[in-house]
Design a protein that fits this description.
The chain has helices at 2-26, 160-163, 255-283, 289-293, 308-317, and strands spanning 30-33, 37-39, 43-49, 56-62, 65-66, 70-71, 84-87, 94-99, 109-115, 122-130, 146-148, 153-155, 169-178, 184-185, 188-195, 201-206, 210-211, 216-224, 231-239, 242-251. The chain is of the alpha+beta class. Among the domains are: 28-130, Sandwich (Immunoglobulin-like); 146-255, Immunoglobulins (Immunoglobulin-like, Sandwich), CATH 2.60.40.10. A five-stranded mixed sheet has the order 2-10-9-4-7, with no helix packed on it. Strand 19 (231-239) and strand 20 (242-251) form a beta hairpin. The longest helix has 29 residues, at 255-283. The protein starts with a helix and ends in a 41-residue tail after the last helix.
Length: 358
């Protein structure tokens, strides 16, 4: 019975220990500044926490913005040339010095921190650039206002032509709702694609239709990259000068192009070699059959004063020399003997002798 009592107690203790960790993971990222105001040419220290571990962040000073509404007009309202990049540590914290520069639009200003790659996250801190113009924020237009209600996604897939370098294409699908008081007719969206840390390239695309107040609509917009594009891209959606959503897009490498160049490097040298050999066979002089069949012996006798043709004629007309050990004149015992040996001795017992008259 005591064991059953201890189990709920252990569960409660574990829940108490895990609750701070869960709340810390769910907390939004934060940004803090060492100074709330500084002039151009100075610098401030920007610190933050609650970000993803090992995340790449971009720090900018942006005008015509407040933390409650975000950066109006996107990064076009920021001093992009004087921005700084920083990578968070294993616990999601960072610290970076930022030079103070005037944004291209009047204040109110903020220090804007946002992720460059991966899941989107951003945070703003109020900052005043000393000596920079300050103007009230533009009033929001009365009437219809669109808001993204669902997560964006990219529909479609690459084909065989994409594998060989054709432009990758997808369809950006999302759902928007009209949270204003009047209808929105034929809304004009801006779709931008960015690669790495580069700024998006925006293209205007108009959706045909009318969205009544309190209604929602499913929007589909085409997205296309340049030919041969590959790597990690980000598709951003903007409406009314404000970025509404971002969607990562991983584009595979066109391996067909690589295979094509490998085949070119193998086939072209082989073809050039074959053509060269054919040209050599065509222009090489042909030897006559007589010259190919007639060869002088290497040990031919060269007589002084004779030309090569006379030497060859003399070599053909001269009889072949007999080997010295077969020459009859060189054997003293057989000198002058050209027939089989016979016995002419007068004392031969087998030869009868004949006595003549005395």
């Amino acid at each position: 019975m005591k064991g059953w009592v201890r189990i709920p107690a252990l569960v409660a203790v574990l829940a108490m220990l895990m609750s701070p960790m869960a709340s810390a993971a769910d907390a939004p990222p934060t940004v803090k500044l060492s100074k709330s105001q500084a002039g151009t040419g100075g610098s401030i220290t920007v610190t933050g926490g609650g970000w993803r571990a090992r995340a790449l962040l971009m720090i900018l000073i942006c005008g015509r913005s407040v933390p409650s509404t975000g950066v109006t007009g996107g990064t076009n309202s920021c001093a992009n040339a004087d921005g700084r990049a920083v990578t968070t540590d294993a616990e999601g914290r960072f610290s970076r010095r930022l030079p103070v520069a005037e944004p291209p639009v009047p204040c109110p200003c903020v220090v804007h921190v946002a992720t460059v790659t991966g899941a989107k996250a951003e945070a703003d801190a109020i900052f005043q650039v000393a000596g920079h113009a300050v103007e009230p924020l533009p009033a929001e237009p009365a009437g219809g206002r669109l808001s993204v209600l669902t997560d964006t996604r990219l529909d479609g897939s690459g084909g065989l032509l994409t594998w060989f370098g054709a432009p990758p294409a997808r369809t950006l699908v999302f759902t928007v709702g009209n949270v204003g008081t009047s209808a929105v007719k034929n809304p004009l969206f801006q779709v931008g694609t960015s690669h790495g840390v580069f700024a998006p390239q925006w293209q205007e695309q108009q959706w045909r239709g009318t969205i009544q107040p309190g209604r929602k609509a499913r929007i589909e917009l085409p997205v296309e990259l340049a030919a041969g594009a590959h790597g990690d891209y980000t598709v951003a959606l903007k409406y009314g000068g404000k970025v509404m959503a971002e969607q990562p897009w991983g584009v595979g490498r066109p391996w067909g192009v690589t295979l094509f160049w490998i085949l070119v490097c193998l086939v072209v040298p082989a073809a050039v070699f074959r053509v060269g050999m054919a040209v050599v066979d065509r222009v090489r002089p042909r030897q006559s059959a007589r010259r190919r069949g007639f060869r002088l012996p290497e040990a031919a006798l060269r007589l002084p004063g004779l030309k090569p043709r006379q030497e060859a004629r003399h070599a053909l007309s001269s009889p072949p020399s007999t080997l010295p050990w077969f020459t009859p004149d060189n054997d003293p015992g057989t000198a002058g003997r050209l027939s089989a040996p016979h016995d002419d001795s007068p004392t031969s017992p087998t030869t009868p002798t004949r006595k003549g008259p005395p």
